[in-house]
Amino acid sequence: MKALLAIAMGLGLGMFGVSAADATQWPNGAKAAVALTYDDALASQLDNAIPALDAAGFKGSFFLSNVKAADIPRWRAAAAEGHELANHTIFHACPAANYPADPRYVAEAYTPASLLEEIKQQNVLLAAIDGKARHGFATPCGSSKAGGVDYLEMLRESGLVTYARGVVTTPADLSGAKIDPMHVPARAFPTT
User: Fold this and answer.
1) Integer CA distances (angstroms), 152 to 89, 91, 100, 146, 184, in order
2) pLDDT tier at 4, thresholds 50, 70, 90
3) DSSP states of 122-158 as a string?
4) Distance CA 28, CA 8 (A)
5) Which helix (H) or strand (E) holds 1?
6) How do 61-64 and 33-39 pair as beta strands?
7) pTM of the predicted protein model
8) Sign of CA dihedral 111, 152, 89, 47
9) Host H or E run for residue 181
């Protein structure tokens, strides 16, 4: 899924178990933050998004999959400049109906255990790029199923990632209720 994603987080409202007294103090009295996230390790992100973010003094989160060896030095530089590199699996296993792919790498061909192994291996690559032991995760194509079974609870139990971002959200997701880090809401915006 080649879309820009933004996560709206009202951190002063008890999300992630943070009390109002312990909440992050945002500049100018703001009560929320918007995190810009990008999926799929696209060349356009290296060529356009990162320079634009840097010029504006912003940082983004880049969920990497299908990383090209030639791009590793540029991803390493982006991480060194403060951009987050995060896990989007190695092969971007989407449901076959959503995304044309080699039949070996569609969500239906995986089991939860095999997908978690792929997430684990992608973490190895990410650590080799950015030097960090822990990473966030975005579900490929917004689907949290492997072989028809939801894997997010198994992913939580594995401790392989710090959070999981989807691609769908509702107004209720952003109402200020405590957000489960394994179900971080997001809103997809089509690319043009």
Assistant:
1) 13, 18, 23, 10, 12
2) very low
3) HHHHHHHHH--S---EE-GGG--EETTEE-HHHHHHH
4) 17
5) none
6) parallel
7) 0.83
8) positive
9) none
Phi-psi region of 2 (alpha: psi -120 to 50; beta: other; left: phi over 0): beta
**Tokens 């200020």 found at:** 176
Residue 78 tokens read as: 């982006």
Are the beta carbons of 95 and 107 closer than 8 angstroms?
yes
User: H or E element: which one contains 162?
Assistant: none
The distance from CA 162 to its chain's CA centroid, rounded to whole angstroms, is: 10
**Both structure tokens of 9:** 């987080």
Q: At residue 133, does pLDDT exceed 90?
A: yes
Determine contact, residues 59/38, Cβ cutoff 8 Å.
no
- Residue-wise pLDDT for 89-128, tens only, equals 999 999 999 888 899 999 999 999 999 999 999 999 999 9
